[in-house]
Write a structure and sequence with these properties.
This protein is an alpha/beta fold and about 270 residues long. It folds into two domains: about 100 residues, 60s Ribosomal Protein L30, Chain: A, CATH 3.30.1330; about 160 residues, Alpha/beta knot (3-Layer(aba) Sandwich). The protein has eleven helices and ten strands.
């Protein structure tokens, strides 16, 4: 693991934050200003953040045991587990490791999606639950998606609970924040993507829709509301994931995982 996660940026040993030693920081330092640094916690999420050259790291805190998993170039503040507990939101499962980092910058759609290369793109319409968005990023990374496109104003920041649920996925898959998802879908169509809206009440199955050989942009909506009608109309096809009649629908993150797997398998 250490050979794969060498971070060449300097990390000063036990650097105080605003002149306050890390173990003396006030409890619950997790409320962040917009655009300011925020906490990423958990072993996988933290190591992925440290390995990402696009990340600007403010500080790293770790227990003595967890610090052994860090690259040698990273010198963390060594703290007891309860001290780390006090710096994070209630219930945060940090596994002895947390990183305070500045947010990842969103990418431009054309920059990360053009020209099409066979990989899928995931579009999330109105999905606001951080756990679901994080799990969708995890699946996007697992199945080699090219990008995740989010609604600009209604999507959660890629920090905290979302980053933990993504287990490093947000560091691997670029994200785009689109003001208008309909225009984003139109742009993807113009670039050569097959655009598919995932819905429950249509006849076409996803596997049949994916017989088209073009790379696919999969559009998924929030649970309950689904994909907004106007956005669904902007897509070339509308398809469903077949499930047992006893169940009304799938969790959006589960649907994203199935759709991304099906897309990667069919290509």
């Amino acid at each position: 693991m250490k050979d794969q996660l060498v971070n060449k940026r300097p990390f000063p040993p036990n650097r105080p934050a605003h002149g306050i030693p890390a173990d003396k920081l006030p409890r619950r330092q997790f409320e962040e200003e917009t655009g300011g640094p925020s906490w990423v916690w958990g072993v996988h999420a933290s190591l992925a953040a440290l390995a990402n050259p696009a990340r600007r790291i403010e500080r790293v805190v770790a227990t003595r045991n967890a610090a052994q998993r860090l690259p040698e170039s990273v010198q963390p503040h060594i703290l007891e587990p309860d001290a780390i507990d006090g710096m994070l939101p209630p219930g945060a499962v940090h596994q002895g490791l947390a990183v305070r980092a500045f947010p990842l910058e969103p990418s431009e759609l054309e920059a990360v999606c053009s020209p099409p290369d066979g990989r899928s793109v995931l579009v999330l319409d109105g999905v606001t639950d951080p756990q679901n968005v994080g799990a969708a990023f995890r699946s996007a990374a697992a199945f080699g998606a090219r990008a995740v496109i989010l609604q600009d104003r209604k999507s959660p920041p890629l920090t905290g609970v979302l980053a933990k649920a993504a287990t490093g996925g947000i560091e691997i898959v670029p994200h785009v924040r689109a003001v208008n998802l309909g225009r984003a879908v139109e742009t993807l169509r113009a670039l050569g993507y097959l655009t598919v809206s995932l819905e429950g009440e249509v006849e076409l199955t996803l596997s049949d829709a994916l017989k088209d050989p073009r790379p696919v942009a999969l559009v998924l909506g929030a649970e309950g509301k689904g994909v907004r009608p106007g956005l669904a109309e902007a897509c070339e096809k509308r398809a469903r994931i077949p499930i047992a009649p006893a169940m009304e629908s799938l969790n959006v993150s589960a649907a994203a995982a199935i759709a991304l797997y099906e897309a990667s398998r069919s290509r």
